[in-house]
Queue: 2 jobs
Job 1
Amino acid sequence: MELRRIGGLPPYVFAQIDQLKLAARRAGRDVIDLGFGNPDLPSPDVAVDKLIEAARNPRNHRYSASRGIPKLRQAIASLYLRRFGVELDPDSEVVTTMGAKEGLSHLMWVLAGPGDSVLVPSPSYPIHIYAPVFAGADVRQVRLGAGANPDEFFDNLMESWESAWPRPKAVVLSFPHNPTTTCVDLAWMAKLVDFAREHEVALIHDFAYADITFDGYSPPSILQVPGANEVAVEMYSLTKSFSMAGWRVAFTVGNAEMVQGLTKLKSYLDYGTFQPIQIASIVAMNEAPDYPKLVCETYQSRRDALCDRLAQIGWEVPKPKGTMFVWAPIPEPYDEMGSLDFAKLLVEEAEVATSPGIGFGPGGDGFVRFALIENEQRISQAARNLRRVLARPGGLPD
Ligand SMILES: Cc1ncc(COP(=O)(O)O)c(C=O)c1O
């Protein structure tokens, strides 16, 4: 049988590391998993309690509203006002999605198709690249760069725009950025919004790490830029902020035309998230508004533990201002090895699983990504294991 759309997908690079991890664990070895960005922290108790209560009510067992029940859309509008000073109309500028991934993927279906192109940073979170591909559009990868300098990235974006014909329909963005951890300020966003308004290009900002930021850094919502809602939508997710990954609750907010286009498509595709989950999500946002700060404190101590321990073993890695990741350049003398082979070496010999940078696109080779999903003791153990392997003769410099 000839299957459509999935034929051209490369083998998932991360699966190779996962298989090695599973094989090592089956052999009784204790692999410390800093690979997949799957949060290990619990969801807020108030949300779990509400979920149990709401699940007992048979009225909540029926189909729900595809775009999200009104109080849920109101809760995200209140969060945006409180958190970013952004006013959203819950009826026309908010739609609930089953995670940011689902929102972004289906939004692409209504924005782009064969003959269109979309600008996407390289490296990128994989769905940023594959959502336009699934929609049949061309992807033009724009170098985000090793030093991850936002101004250079802006110039690269402009260059890609100029060299593309027909002009790209949309730009995918996501800051704080996975995997590079690049962060931008409001002035940077404003520059891009100006450009997009002038050239009528859609901006899609995946704001998955809106709340996972450190050292007092506060990331801008693109919608804080005056006039942004003429051209931009943003994905806000409960996954990382409230550590509710498995619940699959996120929102696409902003430009009413795009939000309503996505709402219409989704009304054909789904009947909404299970209603008790929607009800519990309202409670999470309204009654546990400070939960993201607690989550963030945990990631910050883990970030410090990892970067400090790596520095002690001679592997200097910059401390990120945001995300739950550390983006580490492959140290000499391993830098010629490529990220996949280096990540294989780490999992097989140091018993530390990481994500090879190549899995995020060609712009990611030369790096591995550590996800901060194990506690500080385990992170320290990981650093000791890494020292054992990397300090072998010919390994890391003293
Ligand atoms: C940039 C980015 N967007 C989206 C997601 C997934 O979000 P969700 O669980 O809301 O689909 C992740 C998860 O790692 C991510 O890093």
Job 2
Amino acid sequence: MEMEQPVKTNESHPLEPAIITLFNNACESTLENMYFNTHRRQIASLFVARDYLAIFGNPSLLQAYVAAYSPSRSLCYYSLFSSSETLKTSLQSANFIYSVGSGSGGELVGITAALSRTTRTTTTTPTFHSQDIADYTTALAPIHTTLKTTFPSVNLTYESSVFDILSTLQEHVSLKTECVAKADVITCFFILNELLANSKKEFVAFVKVLVMGMKQGALLVVGDSAGSFSEVAVGTSSSKPSPQQQQQRQPTYMVYHLLDAIKAFEIVEQADSQWYRYPQGLHYPVKLNNMRHFLRIYRKL
Ligand SMILES: C[S@@+](CC[C@H](N)C(=O)[O-])C[C@H]1O[C@@H](n2cnc3c(N)ncnc32)[C@H](O)[C@@H]1O
């Protein structure tokens, strides 16, 4: 185990090594588990098959998912929240951050790291609410402990909820509506395609909750793969193209085409494709990934 050191507050001191050390320590037992590589291969082939529920519905794969995927994601989200002027400014005063599909911890670690470099303009303690269909409690427990020792200067209240964000059960509708209404920042990273794949009708209902429920000035931050993986076939109930559709070259579109058309949202920052490249010199047992993703930051009008 590497020594956990509270990170230096010096602005010029890069935080990426601290983020990777945090995962090295928090995920040590998973990384050393004899089934870890088997689980990683299983996850990778289920991603190719776009069988997301088989990954996130299987508790024995969740710890491997966190250890293998969340470090790269955290680095990317740290970079995003500490380089975008819109997001940097929002972190100075945000009181409630609602992160949809974020149970695996990537957003939590990235945003906490960015907060450690933020001078807050209010004395209130912000809340980070992680929402996910899967219960990552066991996998995230060591990450919470390690976050506190790595970023002791960050005052952040953590909450989570576990349910299908598309659920129409009254208790779930109330909870998501309440969180959406008080959020200053809502993130949807690598989740909207999955939602669209599960059900277009319920996806549209969820977008309506955002449009109707977000307060004026709140931000919706959306990012997902920029490649063809994110394309959704038009006119089908699923984003998994059938072999016949593939042959007919069904027209496809990206999730942001749908969101860009919403009149209640102003597009504040956008990129149809951008790279996050992690810095040299980071050591982690699993290969870290550079990420090509699209980005949209919408402001509710
Ligand atoms: C590809 S992972 C992305 C995780 C994280 N947002 C990130 O960027 O690292 C998708 C996440 O969305 C969650 N998810 C999938 N369908 C969901 C649903 N219907 N409601 C809530 N969460 C869902 C999965 O459990 C998983 O944690």
